[in-house]
Amino acid sequence: MDWFDSLSLIDGPVPVIVSVLGALGGVWLVVSSSRRFSRRALPIAATVAIVVTAVGYVVVEKVWRPFPDPIATTIYVWIGVGLAALFVVVPRLFAARGIAGKSTTVAAAVLVVAAAALHVNLEFDAYPTVGNALGVESAARIQFSDVPAEVAQTVTGTPLDSVWTAPRDLQVAGRITSASIPATASNFSARDAEIYLPPAYFADPRPLLPVLVLLAGQPGAPEDWLNGGKLAETMDDFARDHAGLAPVVVVADGTGSSIANPLCVDSPLGNVDTYLSRDVPDWIDNALQVDRNRAHWAIGGLSYGGTCSIQMATNHPDIYPTFLDLSGQREPTLGDRDRTVQEAFGGNSAAFTAVNPLDLLKSRRYPDSAGIFVVGSDDKDYKPGQQEMYAAAKAAGMDVQYVEVPGGHSFAVWSEGLRRELPWLATRTGLMS
Q1: 137 confidence band (pLDDT: 50, 70, 90)
Q2: 90, 105, 131: which is the final residue of a domain?
Q3: Does residue 140 belong to any structural domain of this protein?
Q4: ∠ CA 405-410-414 to the nearest 5 degrees?
Q5: Residue pLDDT, tens place only, 273-284
Q6: DSSP 277
């Protein structure tokens, strides 16, 4: 079944086939010889779908506002299409003739919903393959209890590749595992972290590898970096070209749930700052045998995670002197400055300013920090903020770059951004010259 799991949901024949079948299913659902269905049931079902979608839009975008930025209108359109198929399927079943007609009706509704889901996925490229969408476990995954313990002999040096020779029996790919990182200092309710260990980590003597902490977006989860982010593939490709060497990657949870937005600060919404600046580094030091020199550590993230990465880099440059901001915002936000200050900082604007990266970059110098801002060339919402942050970071003395990648606000940009900038990260963190 590997061939099935590896089928692309982003390009190739599958999106075309599903779209065509969904269109045919839609035609079946709306065309019927029954006058009662055509004149009453179909208009009612369509109207209900439109109303429900519109109410959902108002609740999400105007009342609840769980996400800092509005969801694209096309997403709501496809949600409405899927709802319409579900609402019309019952009256269409009554209008259908015989078992064959009724079976075709159910199949048609499934195809329309599948096509709608596929097009929502195409907006973000979150699930590149069928296996990703079905949650198929990678063959490279191991239990954390099976991660080899510390070894007595280690290899150190800067750059590390200048003193490392891979053993002949070194495995060709890294391993993925997950672990709960205790929130000892922060008391933050974090989900399990996803961890990538490169081939060289399993060698004895073991090279002390640099660390990359990655953060997902919002809504999102750490495993997003393994699916749409193509983390394992990117790291394995790099390790294959560098004698098994690559950073140890810890994808930490920066939100606590899929839809929470704790702003990556310490506040009533959750002590994420302390979790990422104390609990996560302490756990890595104790649980993994890596390079503990913070000059060889980096942090990065996508969207919310990108914003969080520059927050960590400006508030804790001693821990994360290197960052990769992929499509981050110009500041942490709950939708607007007033709401953010009220809900997370008790109305204290000075408390917000004291931790806001843009304000810190205007008031402090960061001569030992470096980073890259990456954004999609078609990302009109986030590009201006990335350009502003880049200019502010450069003015504050950081060694920074601004990079545009073809695409919008999607995993196609973020996975490619990580792939492109991994050599720079490796050089910056002492892995290679």
Answers
A1: confident
A2: 131
A3: no
A4: 55
A5: 999 999 999 999
A6: I
Kindly state whether residues 369 and 221 are assigned to the same domain. yes
Place of tokens 């490279």: 140
CB 396 within 8 A of CB 361: yes
Domain check: are 92 and 161 in the same one? Answer: no
User: What CATH number corresponds to the domain at position 368?
Assistant: 3.40.50.1820
pLDDT digits (tens, 9 = 90+) for 362-381: 999 999 999 999 999 999 99
Other Cβ atoms less than 10 A from the Cβ of 195: the count is: 24
Residue 403 in contact with residue 417, Cβ under 8 Å?
Answer: yes
Residue 227 CA to chain centroid, in angstroms?
Answer: 9
Average model confidence (pLDDT) for the chain? Answer: 96
Q: Is 155 found in the same domain as 121?
A: no
Residues 233-275: tens digit of each pLDDT: 999 999 999 999 999 999 999 999 999 999 999 999 999 999 9
Alpha helices in 96-195 (DSSP H): 98-124, 130-134
Q: How far apart are alpha carbons 248 and 267 in whole angstroms?
A: 30
pLDDT value at position 308? 98
Q: Are 313 and 349 in the same domain?
A: yes
Q: Under DSSP, is residue 146 helix (H, G, I), strand (E, B) or coil?
A: helix
Q: How close are the terminal C-alpha atoms of the chain, in Å?
A: 41
Number of structural domains in the chain: 2
128 contacts: CB under 8 Å, gap ≥ 6? 8, 9, 10, 227, 228, 230, 411
CA dist list (Å): 331 to 4, 106, 169, 359, 382: 42, 47, 47, 9, 11
pLDDT digits (tens, 9 = 90+) for 189-218: 999 999 999 999 999 999 999 999 999 999
pLDDT in tens, 138-150: 879 999 999 999 9
Work out the average pLDDT over 81-91.
97
- Whether residue 263 is contained in a domain is answered as yes
Please state whether beta strands 297-302 and 248-252 pair in parallel, antiparallel, or not at all (unpaired). unpaired
Q: Is the pLDDT of residue 1 over 80?
A: no
The answer to whether residues 18 and 153 belong to one domain is no
Cβ neighbours of residue 315 under 8 Å, at least 6 residues apart? 273, 277, 355, 357, 360
The answer to whether residue 97 sits within a structural domain is yes
Tell me which residue range forms the domain holding 242.
149-428
Contact between residue 194 and residue 222 where contact means Cβ atoms under 8 Å apart? yes
Domain assignment of residue 141, yes or no = no
Residue 181 near residue 222 (C-beta atoms within 8 A): no
Full-prediction pTM beyond 0.70?
yes
